[in-house]
Amino acid sequence: MIAGFQFKDNYNIEDLLRIMEILRGPDGCPWDAEQTHESIKKDLIEETYEVIEAINKQNPVMLQEELGDLLMQVVFHSRLSQEAGEFAFAEVCDGICKKLIERHPHVFGEVSVSDTDEVLSNWDAIKRRSKEHVTTTQAIDSVPRELPALMRSAKIQHKAAKAGFDWPDIAGAMDKIPEETQELKQAIASGDQAAVADELGDLLFAVVNVSRFVHVDAEEALTAATDKFRNRFAAVETLANQRGIDMKTTPIEELDRLWDEVKKNSLA
């Protein structure tokens, strides 16, 4: 047993910091001691998505647990940086507190706002000043490339639109979809795989632009569409099994008729 460690009925953030210190220490856990920022970065992503899962399921018990797992990742990375002489968890807390105070002058200062749009506008302006962004390109470059692609493209389009680089209405954005689709068809016909990837990316980017105009989150829309496909496929598979149809050898035209039946009867 670690000297000086006390078991308790209820622990707090100081206990979590101490536990992480012990795990990384000479008498701690070999696995924890071997980790680096790079080795556990995927764990941070995984825990974040598990928090989102708990929110989507509206499960408060699960949410409490997953937030704890996410907090542990923050503490873990902070501990790694503390050992490297860079910063500790206290500096992380100090930094976010100062940022929140700075970016809420309507709460902690004398600035007056009339609505949420004005709050967001002030937030963006303060952020650009604090990061010394003079151009929109600098603001665009601040959007992490590591974000999910649909999310990143929407954020970049939004920043470009704020600079005036945008269609006057949705018609221009909609027109780009058939245009990019035609260019994709031409690339496929050419057999140039690099061109196919390029044009497919352009088509996806155009679709995200439309999602921005209609105020629909592209990531969430695609998730919902994937869920719908999964449910309808499950219904098609059930019908096929009931009718003795081997999906692997049945022509796609017949399977498509099953799909239409499922869609028509609202089985999924």
List the SSEs and their pairings:
Blueprint: H1 13-24, H2 30-34, H3 37-56, H4 60-83, H5 89-102, H6 105-108, H7 116-130, H8 136-141, H9 149-162, H10 170-190, H11 193-213, H12 218-242, H13 252-264
Helix pairs in contact: 1-4, 3-4, 9-11, 10-11, 12-13
State the main characteristics.
single chain; 268 residues; mainly alpha; Helix Hairpins; 13 helices; 0% strand; extended
Round the Cα radius of gyration to an integer and report it. Answer: 25 Å
The CATH level-2 architecture of the domain at 13-91 is identified as Orthogonal Bundle
- Could you tell me the mean pLDDT? 94
Determine and state the CATH class of the domain at 13-91: Mainly Alpha
> What spatial form do the alpha-carbon principal axes imply?
extended
How many helical elements?
A: 13
Structure classification: mainly alpha
The name CATH uses for the topology of the domain at 13-91 is: Helix Hairpins
SSE string, helices as H and strands as E: HHHHHHHHHHHHH
Name the beta content range.
under 5%
- What is the CATH homologous superfamily assignment of the domain at 13-91? MazG-like
The count of β-strands is: 0
Helical amount among residues, as a percent range?
over 70%
Unreliable residue stretches: none
Largest sheet properties: none
First and last CA, distance? 55 Å
